[in-house]
Amino acid sequence: MTDAFSHTDPLQKLGTNASVVEKLKLLHDFLKAQHPFIDRVAIALYDNSTDLLKTFIWSGDEESPLSHYQSKLENSPSLIEIAESTNPRVVNNMEIFTGGQNKHTRLLSKTHFGSSYTFPMYQDGHFFGFTFFNSYEKEAFQEAMLSQLDMAAHILTLIVSHEHDVIETLQATIKSAMHFTHHRDPETANHIDRMSRFSRLIAQELARKHDFSDEFVEHIFLFSPLHDIGKISIPDSVLLKPGKLTPEEFNVMKEHAQRGREIIEALLEDFSLDSVNHIDILKNIAQCHHEACDGSGYPQGLTKDQIPIEARIVAVADIFDALTSVRPYKEAWTNDKAFEAVQGMAGTKLDEECVAALLKNREEVELIQEQFKENSIG
Fold first, then answer.
1. How many helices (H) and strands (E) are present in the chain, helices listed first?
2. In a 10 Å sphere around its CB, with 0-12 CB exposed, 13-18 middle and 19+ buried, how is residue 296 labelled?
3. How is residue 299 annotated by DSSP?
């Protein structure tokens, strides 16, 4: 009879509540122990509604050549071919991309990678991104070891898709709560689409200065639509009032910020959603997006850097879109007027850096507005 013996599982952390980037690094280290030439593993996510491929997380010994970067998939025919075929692609001599015109091709060529393996990520038949394996060696990715990379890529697909599924469950739970309590917010779905993407623009512009990771930026994008979840606790007589609120009604409305954080904490406990990574980003956005740099905001009267940066970002995005949208009590402002207004609030109500970041990206702002404009039903 064989004696029992202990074995240490090198991938045990995959079953914990570690972040997706920690799990990626763990898998990368595991692969490198067997194949030392795997120098980089990176994941880019695809936004079907905008055709944007966005850098997300990566693992490697050197700084990533691509971070805080996005590009339309339509501009990358070779990646489109991989996504449509659903089959991975091996390139064992990256020199074939020398002279490529895409920005990401030029950036990658400067790293002197010798070969690559690109794996399309699918969830329930829907394409949502790529896993990239890179090596400085040419002819690195041979048939004998590709099945291991496929296994790792499938594991990463499950890890990333699980995190997004949990966030979508949280979003769906909140929508259901709004439905069953008969509360209706006059803001449209397109407002959410726009302000979440404005939030991402601002975060991406500030990323290098504040050392934001792509993962942090992506979570601001994912969580910003839930900034007003506390409104499900506000009576319809206040929430849906077409005219100006009385001081008493406004005090009731202000309660939604603190209640938003409390609702999130209750949902996490009641629905066992505590596996959501970076949940503090969501809590801070819900509680603090009405704080003001001069201390005149609510619910805590925080000032400047006391306000979490994610809440400062969302505040600018939310206010700008509110100004340029039709509301029961006002017409939509022009972009010129709205930009002037938020600039006038910079340093007092709104964070100066966040306002400047939005103004700097006016062209992208207007592209988002065009793509997610209101229609006769919305």
1. 13, 6
2. exposed
3. S
12 CB contacts (<8 Å, ≥6 apart)? none
DSSP letters, 153-210, are: HHHHHHHHHHHHHHHHHHHHHHHHHHHHTT---SS-HHHHHHHHHHHHHHHHHHHHHH
Q: Between helices 279-288 and 247-270, what is the axis angle to 10°?
A: 170
CA-to-CA separations, 307 to 100, 173, 206, in angstroms, rounded? 43, 27, 16
Residue with the two structure tokens 């070969």: 115
DSSP letter assigned to residue 332: P
CA pair distance 40, 106, nearest whole angstrom: 17
Asked if 91 and 129 count as a contact pair (C-beta separation under 8 A), the reply is no
| pTM reported for the whole predicted model | 0.84
Give the pLDDT confidence of 188-241 residue by residue, as tens digits: 668 888 999 999 999 999 999 999 999 999 999 999 988 988 988 888 888 888
d(CA 67, CA 214): 7
Edge-to-edge strands, sheet with 89-91: 70-72, 52-60, 40-47, 126-135, 115-123, 89-91
For residues 131 and 41, the answer to whether their CB atoms sit within 8 Å is yes
- Residue showing tokens 């726009």: 194
Residues with Cβ within 8 Å of residue 66, at least 6 apart in sequence: 42, 55, 58, 104, 107, 108
